[in-house]
């Protein structure tokens, strides 16, 4: 993939607007402090999966503390994912209305509040904190890539590596540290979860200078003007857009089921919680390989059908492994799933750009795919937990995930054709 093609992988939430001269001046002021901006990006990215990854190794303790059924327990992870889709609906509007820097700062503050609320001894707070966490992460998910594209147009590919690497590193560290932190805090899962609010607080403090520079301290406010031109293309009436969206949603669904239940699958088969947490962290880490390699390959292909077959097969193979030999092959299945998961999300994001005819269409397709995709993905952990509760076994839930893999393969083969919206 050439550098221009690589740079296109970053979708700008402000693609439909152009900055005023005052906005341009403020952004130049921001870039006059690149170290501060870099630190803010890295710290914000560390938070983008941490609050989700911290729950999975402790989900058994959370369930016992509140006396939750498997279905109710699955809502602990499903609710944030559901509100990833809800938050994705409003993120572009908020970015245009109030400025990306201000919204990102508020998202980090909201994330820290949500993490703390989630450990208040109340089921309402447990789920309510998940709502806040989901909305906050959605704002970060949607606005961060556009900010990188806007402020680092000549280094977008390298900055993307920093952004995605930090995001996965955050999830990996948090997943590995959750159980040891619980033990360090005297067996308190609440303290272990609440600890990560400090990471969000540090990121918010690091981001605050960007907000102050962008609004007021330079004498310029970042405002935007609507682009005058032809009527925008409607992605909602495009069959190809729906195919891309469904592939995004189905690959998110199989990943969030693993985020919610992978450690529990291991511990239910006799593995210690500490070991299950480390293997889960390894799964997050190995996703880097797929997320890095698959988009590079996709950009060199007119049709991405071979890659759809590859990532779907890897994920299906990993799920089969969890069904037949969950403990003895745990490290292998974790690696196979990780490559498939990382490759699938990278492929889904790449196809958004490759199927769009222009940047504005890509931004709209990204919003559609993230909104519908996360709403669809939220069904996964809930359904898996409910089926496990009824059957008392992980065999049927995993079999259903194999059906999801087959459906994603079918839809993905259509989405991967060399077509434009």
In round numbers, the mean pLDDT is 84
Order of helices and strands: HEHHHHHHHHHHEHHHHHHH
Largest sheet: 2 strands, antiparallel
Would you tell me which CATH topology of the largest domain applies?
A: Growth Hormone, Chain: A
Please identify, by name, the CATH architecture of the largest domain: Up-down Bundle
Please give the alpha-carbon distance between the first and last residues.
21 Å
Domain Major facilitator superfamily (MFS) profile: 33-420
Transmembrane segments: 30-52, 72-95, 102-120, 126-148, 160-181, 193-213, 240-262, 274-298, 307-325, 331-354, 366-388, 394-416
Protein name: CynX/NimT family MFS transporter
InterPro entries: MFS, MFS_Cyanate_Porter, MFS_dom, MFS_trans_sf
Kindly describe this structure.
The structure is a single chain. It contains 18 helices and two strands. The chain is mainly alpha-helical. The chain has a two-stranded antiparallel sheet with strand order 1-2. α13 packs parallel to α15 (330-355). The longest helix is centred in the middle third of the chain and has 30 residues, at 239-268. The chain is globular and about 60 Å long. The relative contact order is 0.16.
Keywords:
single chain; 421 residues; mainly alpha; Growth Hormone, Chain: A; two-stranded antiparallel ribbon; 18 helices; 2 strands; 1% strand; globular; disordered N terminus
